[in-house]
Amino acid sequence: MLPEIAQVLFAYGSLKYEGKDKIKAALVHGQLRQDVEGNACARFDYPGLVHGELIKVTGDDLRKYDQRERGYQRLKVLTTDGDSAWAYHYQKPGFPQLTWIPSGIWKDARKEKAIQNGNE
Question: 7-116: what fold?
Fold first, then answer.
């Protein structure tokens, strides 16, 4: 059996914390917002920049994320450096009403605190 070819995912929200191999920081044209539960929601058909990371994933990882990321469509995006990657595009109605993150940088406050405290 042939080994599975690694895929590249643009992670801008909680997927940054999945423990996958980080390739590099990246920017993608789009807009980042946060829903009432604190989840990151990006649309790549809105103006702005979304900050994230390119991470290595497997096809199995992507299938798992597809199940978990309901309300998002996995699609290909290009970073501002010209790298191609998969990304999760928010599809639920009401995107303009979500909390806009002008910086384009999402941080999971709970995860950040755990990392700082050495609990991660």
Answer: Hypothetical upf0131 protein ytfp (3.10.490)
Provide the 10 A C-beta neighbour count for residue 95. 17
Domain locations along the chain: 7-116
Rounded CA separation 88/101 (Å): 17
Q: What is the pTM of this model?
A: 0.86
> How far is Cα 79 from Cα 74, in angstroms, rounded to an integer?
15
The counts of H helices and E strands in the chain are: 2, 8
Count the Cβ atoms, other than its own, within 10 Å of residue 61: 18
Query: 99-117: string of b/e by CB count within 10 Å (b at 16+)?
Result: eebeebebebeeeeeeeee
Task: Residue 33: name the closest of 94, 110, 77 by CA.
Answer: 94
pLDDT at 101 over 60: yes
